[in-house]
Fold this protein.
Amino acid sequence: MRFTKMHGIGNDYVYISTFDQKVPADPAELAVAVSDRHFGIGGDGLILIMPSDRADARMRIFNADGSEGEMCGNGVRCVAKYLYDHGLARQQRVTVETGRGVLALELEVEGGKARRVRVDMGAPILKADRIPTRLPGNPPIGVPIEVGGLELKLTAVSVGNPHAVIYVPDIATFALESLGPRIEHHPAFPRRVNVHIVEALGPSEVRMRTWERGSGMTLACGTGACAVCVAGVLTGRTERKLLAHLPGGDLELSWPDDHSSVFMTGPAEEVFSGEWPD
């Protein structure tokens, strides 16, 4: 089975196009195998690029533990790049069907290759039962929960998948490796949750780290950065245009008004291609 390894600011996935080969018999099992960084290809998960009758392509994402996710912001940018660079859609505006719905993406092309992608991520989901979370509020803003003997204040947002945003004075000293999995599996989140700790550097700039649902510590999370942009406005900490510094690189976010889409711009890169034995 032919695959392509791609990443968006270090958030790396193994991509398989089913435009010219069969859909894997068990994508969840395959995701676990290929994601292993010692015995597989290595990655945060598996993404299938599939034909769609609603868009230029359909994307399905499987986390490193085999669970299927609704959406991946860094992943969808890479899908758009793949479509353009591999000749499946040669226009500079492409559409991708996701668990979030059909998203529109604008490509910045240089030297015949897509280098950066701007994604219309759709309007954030702020009702608690749709995020989903059992925390009070629509959306829950700064709600305290106890985790590992600490009281943490969470703001919950969905950008097609659930996110918990926690503001801290210094992201370097927060024990995300140990607290992240506890928050991910907290009873307040019936479908688990992506966890982000955020340090506000100013009204238009943040630094953040991520514990990703089903994948653990990752270098970046595109939907998470979008959620941080929304959470910053809701909590009054940051403005509607935001530069987010993630361990793997930077993303530009904007949420023009309460009823608009969130927009995310960032790079997408192809690393290598190969064949995985059936």
Observations:
- The mean pLDDT is 97.
- The two ends are 6 Å apart (CA to CA).
- The helical segments are 27-35, 73-85, 176-184, 222-235.
